[in-house]
Design goal:
Elements (H helix, E strand, L loop, with lengths): L1 H18 L6 E2 L19 E3 L15 E8 L3 E8 L7 H10 L2 H4 L4 E4 L8 E4 L2 E4 L6 H13 L6 H9 L2 E2 L8 H17 L13
Parallel strand pairs: 1-8, 4-5, 5-7
Antiparallel strand pairs: 2-3, 3-4, 6-7
Helix pairs in contact: 4-6
C-alpha cells in the first residue's frame, strides 16, 4: 500500500538527515526512563470501535482494529488507536499510557499505532502519528513521541539552536543525537521536574 511506503520512507529519510547531527554535549544522565513519573494519571478515557483508518500504517496490512479514544480531563481530546495484526502492545496499555502524557503535549497527536511484532524497532512519529514497536513501552517514550508533534518546528529554530549552544550539557545521550530529539528529551525531563516540584530550581545540582 503506497501510503504505508510513504509513511515509513518519510521516517527513514528524516532519520538519515538527523543522524548527521551530533550536538557533542556533556550528558548528565544515562537515560530518562528511570526518572519518577508515578505522579502522572490517566483521565477518563472512553473508547469506541471505529476511527480514521487512513491514519493507520501497518506495513501494508490492514489494521486488526481501530478505536477512537476520548480523553476527558483538563481538555477533551480524541485520539485514533490503530491495532495492527499481531500488535506488540495491547489496547489497554496504549490507551492508559498515552493518557498519562500531559494534555498540553498530547493534544497535537492524531493517532497512535501498536505495530505488528517484528516489523519495526523502538518507536517513532511522523505527521502527528506515533508508532510503538516494542511491548508495553514506558510513559517517557510516549511523552517523547508526543513532544515531536508538539515541536511544530521549534527544534529547527535559531532560538533553540542558540539555547542548546549556550548550555553546557544535555539530558542524556539520546538528546545529543540531533535537535529534534534534544527538544523531545528536554520535554520528557521537564515533565519530570514539574511533576516533582523541581521546575523552580531546574532540578538543582542534579542537572547542572
Amino acid at each position: 500500500m503506497l501510503t504505508n511506503i510513504i509513511f515509513y520512507s518519510s521516517i527513514a529519510l528524516s532519520l538519515i538527515s538527523l543522524s548527521t547531527q551530533n550536538l557533542n554535549k556533556r550528558t548528565v544522565l544515562s537515560g530518562l526512563g528511570d526518572l519518577d513519573f508515578s505522579f502522572l494519571r490517566t483521565p477518563t478515557r472512553p473508547a469506541v470501535h471505529g476511527g480514521n483508518r487512513n491514519l493507520c500504517h501497518c506495513n501494508g496490512a490492514s489494521p486488526q482494529d481501530v478505536l477512537t479514544v476520548t480523553y476527558q480531563g483538563s481538555e477533551t481530546q480524541n485520539h485514533v488507536l490503530c491495532m495492527c495484526p499481531n500488535a506488540v502492545t495491547g489496547a489497554s496499555h496504549m490507551i492508559d499510557t498515552m493518557g498519562k502524557v500531559p494534555a498540553p503535549i498530547r493534544r497535537y497527536n492524531k493517532a497512535m499505532i501498536s505495530s505488528t511484532a517484528g516489523k519495526c524497532g523502538g518507536a517513532g512519529s511522523s505527521g502527528d502519528v506515533s508508532f510503538y514497536c516494542a511491548g508495553n513501552m514506558h510513559v517517557s517514550v510516549f511523552i517523547h513521541e508526543s513532544a515531536h508533534s508538539m515541536d511544530r518546528g521549534k527544534s529547527a529554530s535559531r532560538e533553540w539552536h542558540d539555547a542548546v549552544a549556550r548550555d553546557s550539557c544535555v539530558p542524556d545521550p539520546y538528546a545529543n543525537s540531533n535537535y529534534a530529539d534534544n527538544f523531545a528529551q528536554v520535554v520528557v525531563l521537564w515533565v519530570h521536574l514539574v511533576g516533582k516540584g523541581r521546575d523552580g530550581d531546574l532540578g538543582g545540582n542534579q542537572f547542572a
